Amino acid sequence: MKDEILAHLNDPRQLERLYQADKRTFKRAFNALYPELGNQVLAGYWKERLSFAGQDISWGSGKDLLFVLLASLLAGGIAKLPMLLALDENVFYPRNIGFILFPMLTAFFAWKNNLDKGKTALVVGAILLGAVYINSLPLAENSDTLILACLHLLLFLWSILGFAFVGEARNNVDKRLDFLRYNGDLVVMTALILLAGGIMTGLTIGLFSLIGFRIEKFYVDYVVTFGLPAAPIAATFLTQTNPQLVGRVSPVIAKIFSPLVLVMLIIYLAAMVYSGKDPYNDREFLLLFNGLLIGVMAIIFFSIAETSQATKSRAELWVLLLLSAVTIVVNSIALSAIVFRIAEWGITSNRAAVLGGNVLMLLHLLLVTAQLFRVLFRQADTAYVGKAIATFLPVYCFWTSIVTFLFPLLFSFK
């Protein structure tokens, strides 16, 4: 988007077309470019326009609102299938929970980005393949491969969502970073909507109980069941039509939590040594350790993605570098524990999945840390850090596909 803005800087009509095509990306790219544009009159006009537009709330077009309504009803309808078709909830939800939400969000971005017929067919085919496959796996008690397939299917569907989000963009790196930013904004906006919905739920049930009506079951069965999947759909609509709503909140959250997580990790590692706990002989501790690792990595990547187009202070860069370095230590401990357990007790589907995931995360962290080091010592621009994150995302997609579709076969559905 940056190159396109620069190419059409003196063409108001083309700039307007770029803005209308993708307001969110245009605003981010323009704000990042503005310090380089000098005192150009048209650039000053666009700066004022984008700043002023950021104060208004856009409710989109009638088609947008209709899509949100229909998608929310369809998502709620899928969530109600066990009750409507007398299906076993313990079988249906673990396998299909991802299909309640991800196809709706994917359809939204496929529609907004005008995906061509070939890519649209690829997206639809991948979703249908996942749905048919996961529901075709045999019922087996304590099947680790089934659990792994269900968990990684969520990541597979998330990857398809990312593919639709990127759309026809020429610069996939920028759009992939935008996708990470969208995920951060989505979490913030969805949390706000759910908080408001929770308050409304409490007030509604409480008020009806005062006049003798017990509506809890009805409210949960219909309002909550349809409202929960509707929340991220509505949040997506709001963040895409009004990027200013959380555009200033997410970077602040990133700046606050990055140093806090760094301090927490250092204290946690010291406490782990003092407590005598280790992930080598304690399976549950190893699982929690890996959960911590994934969470910290998400914070690192979100922090970098949120501010990769903005001017970052050296203090912020140092915090991110130190956080990445400490996370590499955490990852190395987890990886060595997995290798130890494989050497002692042999390979299983769980150990193979965790081993592959940790190796990928370690490689990714090393790439990001190396780029942060280069930026701090003036050997590279901050854009290279974002590029190191974005270019590795398809590798995760490839690995989740292997675990989802091949592991049950390779390990005989055990």
Structure description:
The protein has about 425 residues and is mainly alpha-helical. It folds into 3 domains: about 1-55, no CATH class; about 60-245, no CATH class; about 250-410, no CATH class. The protein contains 19 helices and no strands. The chain is globular. The protein starts with a helix and ends with a helix. This is DUF4153 domain-containing protein. Keywords: Membrane, Transmembrane, Transmembrane helix.
- Strand proportion: under 5%
Order of helices and strands: HHHHHHHHHHHHHHHHHHH
By DSSP (H or I, 4+ residues per run), the number of helices equals 19
Secondary structural class = mainly alpha
Number of domains: 3
Main beta-sheet annotation: none
Low-confidence stretches: none
Q: Nearest-angstrom radius of gyration?
A: 23 Å
Shape: globular
Summarize the structure.
With 414 residues, the chain is mainly alpha-helical. It contains 19 helices and no strands. It folds into three domains: 2-53, no CATH class; 62-244, no CATH class; 248-410, no CATH class.
What are the SSEs and their pairings?
Layout: H1 2-7, H2 12-21, H3 23-33, H4 41-53, H5 62-79, H6 81-85, H7 89-112, H8 117-136, H9 144-166, H10 172-210, H11 216-241, H12 244-247, H13 249-275, H14 283-307, H15 314-345, H16 349-376, H17 383-390, H18 393-405, H19 407-410
Helix pairs in contact: 2-3, 5-7, 5-11, 7-8, 7-9, 7-11, 8-9, 9-18, 10-11, 10-14, 10-17, 13-14, 13-15, 14-15, 15-16, 16-17, 16-18
Protein name: DUF4153 domain-containing protein
Keywords: Membrane, Transmembrane, Transmembrane helix
Organism: Hymenobacter lucidus
